[in-house]
Specification:
3 helices; 187 residues; single chain; Hypothetical upf0131 protein ytfp; three-stranded parallel β-sheet; eight-stranded mixed β-sheet; 24% helix; alpha/beta
Length: 187
C-alpha cells in the first residue's frame, strides 16, 4: 500500500518548515485558499475552501506509514479531508488529503486576530522557490481575505517555523502587499 500524501497550500509549501518525503509541486482542483481566523487560535492563517471551478497550486508530500499524528498535531485547528482531483508528477493515483479550518470555529480576521507577517513571509518564500515570481504572484491573486490586517512581526517573529527571507524576497512580499491593498501595523 502506498503512503498517503498531504496537499500544502500555505507554510507547507516551504520545504524549510517540514521534512516530509517525496515532495513535489501540485495543483488541487475544486479548492481555493483564504485568510481566516478561528476561535482556536489567536491569529489569522490560511485555510483551504471548497471552490468548484477553481484551482490552487501547492506542494504534495508523503506521510510515511500513514502516520498522520505529527502533521495533525501541527494542523490541530483544521479538519483533514480528501482533496479529490490533484495534478502532480508522481506515477499513478495518490490518496491526497487537505487541511481546512473547522467551519464551526471560522471567522474573518481582524486587528485583534491579524495575519503574522512572519507566517506570510514563510509562505511566500515557499511559493517563490517552488513556482517562481509568477507563481508567487498567483498565490496573492488566488488568495481571499487580504482585508485582514497584517501584524509586522519581522523584527521579533512570532511564527514558530519562520524562515529567513533575503532582501529581494522581502521586497517582493512588501510590493505584493501594496498591490492587494493590505493594511500593516507594527507589533
Amino acid at each position: 500500500m502506498r503512503d498517503p500524501f498531504f496537499f500544502g497550500y500555505g507554510s507547507l509549501v516551504n520545504r524549510g518548515t517540514h521534512q516530509f518525503p517525496h515532495a513535489t509541486r501540485a495543483v488541487a482542483h475544486g479548492w481555493g485558499r483564504a485568510w481566516k481566523h478561528t476561535r482556536l487560535r489567536e491569529v489569522a492563517f490560511l485555510t483551504a475552501v471548497e471552490a468548484p471551478g477553481s484551482s490552487i497550486e501547492g506542494l504534495i508530500a508523503a506521510v510515511p506509514g500513514a502516520d498522520w499524528a505529527g502533521l495533525d498535531a501541527r494542523e490541530w485547528a483544521y479538519d483533514r479531508l480528501p482533496v479529490g482531483r490533484v495534478d502532480h508528477d508522481h506515477p499513478g493515483a495518490l490518496d491526497v488529503q487537505i487541511y481546512r479550518t473547522k467551519p464551526e470555529h471560522t471567522e474573518d480576521g481582524t486587528r485583534a486576530h491579524p495575519i503574522l507577517l512572519s507566517y506570510l513571509d514563510t509562505v511566500v518564500q515557499g511559493y517563490l522557490r517552488e513556482f517562481g515570481t509568477h507563481g508567487a504572484e498567483r498565490f496573492f491573486a488566488t488568495t481571499a481575505g487580504w482585508d485582514t490586517p497584517i501584524l509586522d512581526d519581522r523584527a521579533a517573529p512570532r511564527y514558530p517555523r519562520v524562515q529567513v527571507l533575503d532582501a529581494a524576497e522581502r521586497d517582493f512580499v512588501d510590493a505584493q502587499l501594496r498591490n492587494v491593498g493590505a493594511a500593516r501595523f507594527a507589533a
